[in-house]
Amino acid sequence: MAEAILFNVTADIIFKLGSSLLREFGSLWRVKDDLDKLEDTLSAIQSVLHDAEEQQSKNSQVNDWVLKLKDVLYEIDDLIDKSSYETLRRQVLAKDRRKRKQVCTLFSKFKFSWKICHRFKEIRQRLQAINDDKNQFSFCKHVIEKREDEGLRKRRETHSFILEEEVIGRSNDNEAVIDLLLNSNTKENIAVVSIIGMGGLGKTTLAQSIYTHHNMTKNGFQLKLWVCVSEEFDLKVIIQKIIESATGKKPESFLQIDSLQSELRKQIDGKKYLLVMDDVWNEKTEEWLHLKRLLMCGAKGSRILITTRSEQVAKTFDSTFVHSLRILNAPNSWLLFQKMTGLEGYSDNQEELDEKDSNLVQIGKEIVSRLNGVPLVIRTIGGLLKNNKSERFWLSFKDKELYQILEQGYNDLKEIKFILELSYKYLPTNLKQCFLYCALFPKDHEIQKDELILL
Prior knowledge:
Elements: H1 10-25, H2 31-56, H3 60-94, H4 102-133, H5 143-155, H6 171-182, E1 190-196, H7 203-213, H8 215-220, E2 223-230, H9 235-247, H10 257-268, E3 273-280, H11 285-295, E4 302-308, H12 311-316, E5 321-324, H13 330-341, H14 355-369, H15 375-386, H16 391-398, H17 402-407, H18 414-425, H19 429-438, H20 449-454
Parallel strand pairs: 1-4, 1-5, 2-3, 3-4
Helix pairs in contact: 1-2, 1-3, 2-3, 2-4, 3-4, 6-7, 9-10, 13-14, 13-15, 14-16
């Protein structure tokens, strides 16, 4: 993920560097031309960087190329700092400058200007060489756009069914959300209830449980609808999915949106419905309002239940009620781990177990304590350990950090990595940079606010 941020700050770097150099040294150097060349070079590199990220874990030469690129960008960042410092230093000195010292000051400025611009030109030449080197790797351009539009969105498709016994530790959450859906007093005919929480907490699982198994939702609504929204909030696609959920038939793809909206309103008109919109990312109010208008013809008491990782999404969708999903507590984390590893038959009473089983349970509890109560992580790690109940294997796993396991590329852990990458992708640029700085601190380290700010 460190490489993913490099060009999120590229435009900012060029702007800061360009403003500083043009303001201070523009008359002494052809700064504008060099900046234009730098921008062209960075743009050419940026177009293939996503493919380079995909390849660098498998190709040591690509990894070296990315590291060289990082070094140059860090040098550009240092150059900005030096230039800003020199500007500030001269401003302070200027407050108490005597006429006699002005000649020395002008000479000092010229000397510094020459050094900084000379270094800038060297950096630009190094970056051009890196750009030339990329041709040997035959990188594809804009690979990430194709992957996002086709791969990730398709992979995040969810459905409404779940086995009741798979839902562990969420009975209180289940009842709380049901109460918000059915028993809450609100003036609105159609209210929105949001389940929010970070990736991997089981928001979809909770929504599936409420949708499929709870008797009150079975009997309390005339019509139940499930739509997986995921990353792209496409009004036409969402309408098609709602109609398909209502009728069991996929609408004709050639229909115009006007025909679709008419069919949607026909299906829900006068009916008390529950619409689950799973995995919502849209934060644009106008796009939600377009859909909301079409959903207003349902009967009083209709509810829209959305799951999202973002509080801003809940606000965008005018949520009447919000339920924040938390991590599992220790007992429920252990129950889930037992289920995933096949340890349900193992007693927690050490006296009833032989030495091998007792050791396995103890190691398992220590592993669970490091998984921070995140259901997806517990499920995935539990699945990895299920088929190898070797005390030695579990002990080896316990002594390794989760990120080290991820680095080894186990297929079973790709879903966790994907969810983390997706959350990272939707961070604002400044928070991505902050997140990476936080990674400098060791696990469980108490981070001092001022120290992080200074970094």
